[in-house]
Amino acid sequence: MGETAPATETPARGKDVVDGDDPRAIIWEVLRGQWRFSALYAFVELDLAGWLRDGPLTVEALAGRCGADRVALSRLLRTAATLGVVRSVPTDEGVAYTLTPAGETLRGDVQRSMRSVVIPQGAPDFLEAMGSLADAVRNGKSPFAARFGSMYGYLERHPEARHHFDAHMSTRSRSIAEAFVARYDFSGIDTIADLGGGVGTVLATILKANPGMRSILFELEPVIAGAGEFLRAQGVADRCELVAGDFFSSVPVADAYVLSNIVHNWDDEDALLILRNMRATMPAHGRALLLDILLPEDDRPHLGKELDMRMLALYDGARERGEQEYFALLAQADLRPSRVVELPYALSLIEVVPA
Predict the structure, then answer these.
(1) Catalytic residue among 158, 163, 168, 264
(2) 351 partner at 20 to 30 Å CA-CA among 80, 127, 179, 316?
(3) 184-229 pLDDT, tens digit each
(4) Residue 163 known to be catalytic
């Protein structure tokens, strides 16, 4: 009778700290998430996806190009392989690594790159603020804002952070705008105003899908100054009036309004002021199209609940709202929701009309 071979772990399954039915498994999974993100951030900060864009490289070759310690880099790469951003391949020189489709999205030279999403999440100033989340919960104030002032002031003083922020917002806005246009009927709107619309990414997408429509881009003066060039490049500048102003004071008259990720940037008092100023100029047949997160009222997981922790740490007053809370805010501005359409990024399109 032969000996029984020792049991071995199935290669396809990683070794867990505790059994999956152990209640501590949930806590370990959250802890491991931080370690995995740290590996991802190091991968991106070293621009390993950029160095691997032309094909597989051995650890030695990659270390020489990115200026890293060979042994430490090999440790990072084997972890990156478990994250699914690279995979190992045999070569005549030994084991090399190549990008997976997910890893390709971390290159800075590709459409809808995730590089500018990852970098701000792991930057020291932002990490410190997230590490002080308990302080924000104690006093209701953003530790980041207490240290640096507003997020937008910080970005003005830190050009690299601003670059990544703008790149991420531009990519995100394009994805949102494409889904928005695909899922909403703009019939009956002659003039649409985008309030706080940046350089016009969402507005340009709407105009290209609706050739007979005219528009107003309403923004602060410094932003408006750079919008004309973008709108000309999109071929819609002749149908877009650029108006500089402050939506805390007043907004222009239009058949419809777009507020994309605006309401969640402000506390209830300021958000209500913006909505009331819009309602004051909205015609009887008018409507507003609000792109925001509506949190579910129950305990189900939702991206917005996790994003809300970042809002709490980094912005004073900014917050994601539950559906009931959001609709109550609309009611105070004499508005009522007439339709809700789900969009990517956990966003909802809330169509509102005069109450």
Answers:
(1) 264
(2) 316
(3) 999 999 999 999 999 999 999 999 999 999 999 999 998 898 899 9
(4) no
Fill in the DSSP letter of residue 237: G
- Grouping H, G, I as helix, E, B as strand and the rest as coil, residue 291 is strand
**Cα dihedral 90/96/99/100 (nearest 10):** 30
Helix axes 201-209 and 159-183, enclosed angle (nearest 10): 30
3-class secondary-structure state, position 298: coil
pTM of the model: 0.86
Q: Greatest CA span in the chain, whole angstroms?
A: 90
Q: Show Cβ contacts of residue 339 under 8 Å, excluding neighbours closer than 6 positions.
A: 349, 350, 351
Count CA atoms within 13 Å of residue 282 on its CB side: 23
Q: Rounded distance, CA 6 to CA 52, Å? A: 40
Q: Which helix (H) or strand (E) holds 61?
A: helix 59-66
Amino acid at 65: R
DSSP percent split of the chain into helix, strand, coil, nearest 5: 50, 15, 35
DSSP letter for each residue of 14-59: PPPSS-TTSTHHHHHHHHHHHHHHHHHHHHHHTTHHHHTTTS-EEH
Tens of pLDDT along 142-174?
999 999 998 988 998 999 998 898 888 888 888
Tokens 């777009």 identify what position? 258
Place of tokens 């020291």: 124
Question: Can you list the positions of beta strands (E) in the chain?
Answer: 57-58, 86-91, 94-99, 191-195, 214-219, 240-244, 256-260, 287-292, 294-295, 321-322, 335-342, 348-354
What kind and span of H or E run contains 227?
A: helix 221-233
Taking the CB of residue 202, how many other CB atoms lie within 10 A of it? 23
- Of 257, 288, 260, 258, which Cα lies nearest the Cα of 347? 260
C-beta neighbour count of 181 within 10 angstroms:
16
